[in-house]
Amino acid sequence: MSLTRSFFASALFVTAMLWTMGAQSAEPIVVIAPFNLTGPDAVLDAPCYKGAELAVEGLNAAGGVLGRPIRLVPVDTASDVSSTANKVDSVFKRYPNAIAGIGFTDSTYALVAGRVFQKARIPFITPGATAPDLPQEVGNDIFLAAYGDDAQALVMAQYAWNELKLRHVTLWIDDSRVYTRAVGNFFDNFFRQLGGTVDKRTYTVGAPDFGDFIAAYKAADPKLGGIYAASLPGSAVPLIEQVRDAGINVPLLSADGWDDGEIVAASKRKGIKGIYFTTHRFLGVDTPGMKAFVNAYAQKFGAAPPNAFAPLGFDSMNLLAAAIERARTTNPEAIRTALAETRDFQGLVGKIVYAPGKRVPDKAVSVVRIDDGAETLVWTWTPQSQ
Questions:
Q1: What SS3 class is residue 213?
Q2: Do residues 205 and 159 lie in contact, with contact meaning Cβ atoms separated by under 8 Å?
Q3: How far apart are CA 324 and CA 89, in angstroms?
């Protein structure tokens, strides 16, 4: 290397170091991050928060946003929706300079927390909540990073009808959550529109015994060819095991609430086949970005990401950072406007495009099959807008 090139290389290195030191010494940009980090809902929320944490680490290592570091302030709502609003509100009081928030994989919690952010007039991105009417229920400060439940329910209805050749199914809905009610009712409507029949039943969360549902399934006329369960991981494994133990070997269908390692483990443990669920983007997809994320996540946290909610957390944080950069300010109103104008954000879990006046993106939906502990991507539906 010549003396001149050596000099310029050294100068660039020193400039980069000074830039990083300057970003680290600047006032942090505070982002509040409410998630269920403990309790039963942590199986989805904890990986999602870790994905966001990994994104912040990368952003800060690259000099921060607008030359300032991001400070992600976690709020553990401990799977208790009744205390969620108070916990989030108390963090606002401790961090009055917070400019945005990201949080939750479940629509019930996103609805409650979203209203606190709306009252404070602070933009809030929910990485995994999927109820498509959240913006109408909350206001213009909430943005979904995931598709809506209408999209994933439509995809599973089409897959069940076209690929699995199902015509008569039963639908079991956990009636305690916004998410499970929404995705279950959307599936009901779409499957009926295709010409199928649906035997619809509801239960409350924590119901460990599905004996009555199983008896009704066996007695149904016409004979039912599949079971769609609108549920979360807490009741999924008992449901799956009880159905198979009863000798019912039809396809078991669900949505992204079944994107959980415990279900995969139960399938392997008992040799269960024929489980299908819709999710955001299959972690096994062979793209450089996803492979790099999986490797970085495993290196930082000691294990590979267990579900698609981990990269959704990563994408949500980077989506927010990109909006702040475009706004060129940390003013919440300007950030909200920049988020609403997102037209081509390429995340790990697909492209995020907000149509004018809409805060639920049109995104691809994957259908994954689980057989004896092995996950296989069987179909990816892509909206016409992409």
A1: helix
A2: no
A3: 23
Residue type, 382: T
Rg (CA), the chain: 22
Taking the C-alpha atoms of residue 77 and residue 270, their distance in angstroms, rounded to an integer, is 33
Whether 23 and 107 have beta carbons less than 8 Å apart is answered as no
Using CA atoms, how far apart are residues 50 and 297, in angstroms rounded to an integer?
8
Under 8 Å between Cβ of 345 and 322:
yes
CB half-sphere exposure, 71, CA atoms < 13 A: 14
Distant-in-sequence, close-in-space partners of 198: CB < 8 Å, separation ≥ 6: 168, 169, 170, 171, 188, 191, 192
CA separation for the pair 16, 305 (Å, rounded): 31
- Among 380, 385, 309, which residue's Cα sits nearest to residue 353? 385
Count of beta carbons in the 10 Å neighbourhood of residue 180: 28
Tell me the pLDDT tens digit for each residue of 66-93. Answer: 999 999 999 999 999 999 999 999 999 9
What's the CA angle centered on 19, arms 15 and 20, to 5 degrees?
120
Residue with tokens 């980077």: 318
Cα 9 to Cα 14, 20, 23, 53, 113, distances in angstroms: 9, 17, 21, 32, 48
Distance CA 122, CA 133 (A): 19
> How many Cβ atoms from other residues are within 10 Å of residue 206's Cβ?
11
Report, as an integer, the average pLDDT of 165-181.
96
pLDDT digits (tens, 9 = 90+) for 306-353: 999 999 999 999 999 999 999 999 999 999 999 999 999 999 998 899
Q: Under a CB-based contact definition with an 8 Å cutoff, are residues 340 and 327 in contact? A: no
Helix, strand, coil share of the chain (percent; to 5): 45, 20, 35
Q: What are phi and psi of 149, to 5 degrees?
A: -65, -30
What is the DSSP code (8-state) at residue 254?
A: E
Please check whether residue 230 is in contact with residue 183, taking contact to mean a CB–CB distance below 8 angstroms: yes
Q: What's the CA gap between 79 and 232, in Å, rounded?
A: 13
State the distance between the two ends of the chain, measured CA to CA, in whole angstroms: 47
| Neighbour tally for 91: CB within 10 Å | 19
